[in-house]
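Notes from the 1:1 (GR / supervisor)

We went over the backlog. Supervisor wanted to see one worked example end to end before approving the batch request, so GR pasted a single chain during the call. The sequence is below; no edits were made to it. Supervisor asked that the structure be written out right there so they could see what the output format looks like.
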Amino acid sequence: MNYKIINPEFILSNMMNNVDVVKQMIGMFLGQGKEDFQELKQAIGKEDYTEIKSKAHHIKPTMEYIGASNIRLQFQELESQAAANAAFSDIQQIFTKLEQDFTLAMEELEDYASTLS
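Structure output shown during the call:
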């Protein structure tokens, strides 16, 4: 598979080429990451700026661990817009793109995890 979002080499080198640690990290992230993203989605649905800012801030650093700098920047933008109480249509627009990319990142992580022996 050609990964568009995650960077397997980066993940592996980040975890000192320890495949067991990579598998553990991916498993944890797939569980917790999806749960955190669902909470962000609920905050978006409620137009809760404070919660959107908090959830985006919470998820953001994890994106660096998987080499998804682009998504980290999208979470940063979402966090900044929520902090500035930007027009909700702007926040919604950022989130729509972010949701597509995040979903793809999760699929790529699952695929990458399946290749680790």
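Supervisor's comment: Residues 37 and 115 are 25 Å apart (CA to CA).
Batch request approved.
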